[in-house]
Structure formats: C-alpha cells, structure tokens
C-alpha cells in the first residue's frame, strides 16, 4: 500500500494516487468528506480556511461505491486558485516580479531558503507552494480511506490535543467512543470545556501579540491485532514507520510512542507492562506504558502515539532574515497565517497513523480482495486462540 501526492497550495488542485487497496472495499464518501472537514476546523485557523471547502473527488479505482483493486485517484480542488490563476499558471506569464508575486525574502522556519538553495530556484514561491501544509488535505483523504478499511476489522482511531503552548489538558479516562465524541464537540479538540476556554483565550492572546503557538497531539488506535510490524528488520518495525509518518507532518518536531521520553526517567520496573492471561481475552497487559508496541510489533494493546508541533513560522511579529537578491537584512513582512493549527494537526496525525497501520495490516493479511483479507485475518485469529 502506498501513495504519492502532487499539487501546490495555490494551484488548481491537490492529487493523490493510492496503490495497493484491495477490491470490494465499500467507500463511504460522506465519511471521507467529514474527515476533510474535521481537518479544516479548529480555533486559531486563519482566513484561508474560510475560502476552502475541501471535498474529495475520486477519479479512478472506484466504481459504484466499491474499490476495484485498481489505483485510487483522489482530487481536492483549491477554491483559492481562482485568485491565483495567473500567478500559478503552468504556462509562462508576462509581468513584473510584483505581478508574478515572486518571493525573494525567505521566511525563517519555512523551507524557503533551504529549498531555494537546493533546487536553485530564485523564486521562493516555487518552494513554499509545495512545502505548504495544504498538502495534508490529501494525506487526510488517503488516511480516511485507510481508516474505512481498518473499520472493517473493528479498528478505531481517535485523536486529541493534549497541550497548546503553556496550557495542558488534564488526563481523562474515557472509552475510545467517548473520546471521539467529546473531542469532536470541542473547538480545540480537548475533552473538557474548561481547558477549551483556557486554550481559546490563550490563542487569542498569542494572536494579539502577532505570534503563533504549537502544541502536542495524541492519537489512539484501538482494536489493532497482535503481530503487525516486525522486529526482524529495521524497516519493518511498525512503531518506527509510524514515527516517520508523524515526523513528516508539516511543523512536527518529535514523536513519542506510549510514555515516550518519560521512559528515560523511570526504572525498568516502572516502565514495562506486565503480561496477564484470561480465557476470554487471551494474553493482555496490566498497563500500556509502551503504547501498544514491543520489538516494533503490536502487542494487542491500544497504539498510543504523540507528536509535537512547533509554532507556525509565518508570524505577524517580524523575524529577521536576508533578501536573496540584495543580501540585505530585512524583517519579514506580514502574511496571512494560522496563529495555531494544533487541532488540525491532531486530525492529520490520526490519518497518518491510520495509514501506517492499514499498510502493515495489508502486509500481514494481504490479499487482493476484502474477502481474501478477511479469511486470512480470521484464520490468524483462530491461530492466536489455539496458541
Ligand atoms: C500554510 C499557509 C496558509 C494555511 C495553509 C498552510 O495558507 P495560505 O498561504 O494560503 O494563507 O492556510 O493551510 C491550508 C491551506 C490548509 O488547508 O491547511 C503553510 O504555509 O503551510
């Protein structure tokens, strides 16, 4: 299972091609668009989200609501493109730098300068258009399809914001369904209303200061069978693949599985999850500090992943940089931006994690049709029961 994406933030559309989906997966288009809608929400988003209304159009690999086994092509239009038709034209255009909206002032924290130097591009727009987090729209579309595949096997995915800057959300002991329901009702994807209010006020303050703020998000996946991923080779360790996926989300600077960095503080006896057995449950754990993984393999406990997002680097408060034409110092000009995109990043992370799990699931139970995969899966469950 793999996908590639293409498209620029102010280009006509974003495109993804997914390969490796089995046939006869029934897609719920409304659910797919609901996931895209979730990514657009969140307190602290800027004006661009008022322009877009992300909708996935499937233009290959699906017929009468079912996958055929062929590559699935997904397209999401950029509504903002109507304002950029000329500037983003594929054909050459006449005009001054101003008219072409040529960017020659790299923004600290973005890919602008590194990208310009690397690809030898004198118009940094060519870098920023593709490095923009707008691309996460189609990553969510791919993940939403993976999520529907996982749901066929009773696997559920939830996400929550656990910190925005200085404000931390308290821990709540909820079922995954409660977590999904309660975070959905929140403007910042937290469980309790008090934290939500504090975070909103905090984001208002950050915005007023012309600044931006990051945070920490958590993803929980329940119903994952024992045995996805493998210890036998570095690139088959599923926790490592999830970490790669999460780190590749724009502005993410770190990933934890389970208690993560806290494992460097505690003693072994305080970290490892003791093994228990019962007739009904089979093998299970007394705790889940390792976040569902041992040896890069799922152990049947919920997969728990955290990611940290840095503050968005486009600031109203100027930072110093150097003009690539004149080599003169300047302080970055005001640009449209999100003061906080942590709630949206939480939705992106859910889909990136769902994707990696679906991929590992297909590696283990792989088949060309849903029936074949279900038979393989049930056969494996029977094997586990006999073990
Ligand atoms: C982004 C900059 C902003 C965000 C964008 C990501 O876009 P613009 O430059 O058009 O104002 O709105 O996010 C999205 C468009 C989105 O769909 O999430 C960036 O530089 O990464």
From TrEMBL:
One of its GO terms (biological process) is amino acid biosynthetic process. It catalyses: 5-O-(1-carboxyvinyl)-3-phosphoshikimate = chorismate + phosphate. NADP(+) binds at residues 39, 45. One of its GO terms (molecular function) is chorismate synthase activity. FMN binds at residues 130-132, 250-251, 295, 310-314, 336. The keyword Lyase applies. Reduced FMN (FMNH(2)). Signal peptide: none annotated. CDD domains: Chorismate_synthase. Its cofactor is FMNH2. Its EC number is 4.2.3.5. Pathway: Metabolic intermediate biosynthesis; chorismate biosynthesis; chorismate from D-erythrose 4-phosphate and phosphoenolpyruvate: step 7/7. It is an enzyme of class 4 (lyase). One of its GO terms (cellular component) is cytosol. Keywords: Amino-acid biosynthesis, Aromatic amino acid biosynthesis, FAD, Flavoprotein, FMN, Lyase, NADP. Homotetramer. This reaction introduces a second double bond into the aromatic ring system. NCBIfam families: aroC, PRK05382.1. Belongs to the chorismate synthase family. HAMAP family: Chorismate_synth. This is Chorismate synthase. The gene is aroC.
């Amino acid at each position: 299972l793999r996908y590639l994406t293409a498209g620029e933030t102010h280009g006509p559309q974003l495109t993804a091609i997914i390969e490796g989906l089995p046939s006869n997966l029934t897609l719920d288009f409304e659910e797919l668009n609901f996931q895209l809608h979730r990514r657009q929400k969140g307190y602290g988003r800027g004006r661009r989200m008022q322009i877009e209304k992300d909708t996935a159009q499937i233009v290959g690999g699906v017929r009468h609501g079912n996958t055929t086994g062929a590559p699935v092509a997904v397209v999401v239009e950029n509504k903002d493109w109507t304002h950029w038709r000329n500037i983003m034209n594929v054909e050459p255009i006449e005009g001054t730098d101003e008219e072409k909206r040529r960017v020659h002032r790299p923004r600290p924290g973005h890919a602008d300068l590194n990208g310009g130097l690397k690809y030898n591009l004198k118009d940094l727009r060519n870098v920023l258009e593709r490095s923009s987090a707008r691309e996460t729209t189609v990553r969510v579309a791919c993940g939403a399809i993976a999520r529907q595949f996982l749901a066929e096997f009773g696997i559920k995915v939830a996400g929550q914001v656990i910190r925005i800057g200085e404000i931390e959300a308290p821990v709540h002991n909820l079922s995954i369904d409660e977590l999904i329901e309660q975070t959905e009702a929140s403007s910042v994807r937290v469980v309790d209303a008090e934290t939500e209010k504090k975070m909103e006020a905090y984001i208002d303050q950050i915005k007023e200061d012309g600044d931006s703020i990051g945070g920490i998000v958590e993803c929980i996946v329940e119903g994952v069978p024992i045995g996805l991923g493998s210890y036998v080779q570095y690139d088959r360790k599923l926790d490592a693949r999830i970490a790669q996926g999460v780190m590749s989300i724009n502005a993410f600077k770190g990933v934890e599985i389970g208690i993560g960095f806290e494992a460097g503080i505690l003693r072994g006896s305080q970290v490892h999850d003791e093994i228990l057995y019962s007739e009904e449950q089979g093998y299970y754990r007394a705790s889940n500090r390792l976040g569902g993984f041992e040896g890069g393999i799922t152990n049947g406990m919920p997969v728990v992943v955290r990611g940290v997002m840095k503050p968005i680097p486009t600031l109203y408060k100027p930072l110093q940089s150097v003009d690539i034409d004149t080599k003169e110092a300047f302080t970055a000009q005001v640009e449209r931006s999100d003061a906080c995109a942590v709630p949206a990043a939480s939705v992106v992370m859910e889909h990136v994690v769902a994707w990696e799990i679906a991929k590992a699931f297909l590696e283990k139970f792989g088949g060309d049709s849903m029936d074949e995969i279900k038979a393989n899966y049930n056969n494996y469950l029977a094997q586990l029961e006999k073990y």
